[in-house]
C-alpha cells in the first residue's frame, strides 16, 4: 500500500507504506464505494475531540483509537468515523470496531459494526472505520470499541506504487477530485484486483469523508490509471490520503 497525502495547497508527501495482496479471484470492473453522500446533505458536525473508547472486546495492544467523530446530515442522519491506529510492527488484518451512537445524556441510541475500506492496515499507520446512522439525535456522540484485529503475514504481500497522484479540491471545499496511476513492479506477480482508498480530512485533521475505487487486473510491469472523487460530510476538505491494495 502506498499512502500519499495532500494538503489544500496541493503539496505532495509520499509515505512509504506498500501493501499488495495476491488472490486468485477475478477482478470486477472499476467501481467506487463511498462514505460520502452529496455535500448538499451536510448540516452540522458533532466532534469527540477526546474519543470515547470502550475497552476492546478482546484485550489487545495491537490497535488504538485516536479519533471519533459524527457528522450530522440535513436529513437527520449521522456519518460516524473512528480512526484506528496500528501499533504493531506488522500489518494488521480483520480489523473491526463497534460504533455506538450516544445522546447528550450518554444513553445508547444505536450501534453498528464498522470496518476499514481496505483489508489491512500497514504497520505504524492508521485507517478510518465508519458507519451511517439514520434518525440520529442532534447532539450525537460516537463511542468506539475495537472488536477484532489480527497480525498479518507480510511475506504474503507484494509491492505496488502509486504515481502522479493528484487531489484537486473544488471552490466549495466539499469535493476533492482525485486521479493518478498504479504501477506494479516487473518482478511482481500479476494482480487480479486493485483497490484505492481515499480519506479526506478537515483542517483539524478530523476525518470528513471516505471513498474506495475498485479497478481490474494489472500485469507485472504495467500501470493502471484511476480517477474518482471524495466529498465531505463535515467541514471543508483540507487534505486527502491515498492508500492502495492490490491482490
Radius of gyration from the alpha-carbon trace, in angstroms: 18 Å
**Helix content range:** under 10%
Overall shape: globular
Multimeric state: single chain
Can you tell me the CATH architecture of the largest domain?
A: Sandwich
SSE pattern: EEEEEEEEEEEEEEEEEEEE
Share of residues in strands: over 45%
Mean residue pLDDT: 82
**SS field, number of helical segments:** 0
Low-confidence stretches: 9-31, 36-49
Structural class: mainly beta
How many discrete structural domains?
Answer: 2
- Strand order, largest beta sheet: 2-1-20-17-18-4
Number of strands: 20
Description:
This protein is mostly beta strands. It has two domains: 3-34 and 154-165 and 179-198 and 211-246, no CATH class; 39-151, Sandwich (Immunoglobulin-like). Helices cover 0% and strands 56% of the residues. It is built from no helices and 20 strands. A six-stranded antiparallel beta sheet has the order 2-1-20-17-18-4, with no helix packed on it. Strands 6, 9, 10, 11 and 13 form a five-stranded mixed beta sheet that branches. The protein has a four-stranded antiparallel beta sheet with strand order 5-7-8-12, with no helix packed on it.
Q: Which SSEs are present, and which pair or pack?
A:
Elements: E1 3-7, E2 12-15, E3 20-21, E4 31-34, E5 42-48, E6 52-53, E7 63-73, E8 78-86, E9 92-102, E10 108-114, E11 120-121, E12 126-133, E13 141-151, E14 157-158, E15 160-169, E16 175-184, E17 194-201, E18 207-215, E19 223-231, E20 239-246
Parallel strand pairs: 6-13
Antiparallel strand pairs: 1-2, 1-20, 3-14, 4-18, 5-7, 7-8, 8-12, 9-10, 9-11, 9-13, 15-16, 16-19, 17-18, 17-20
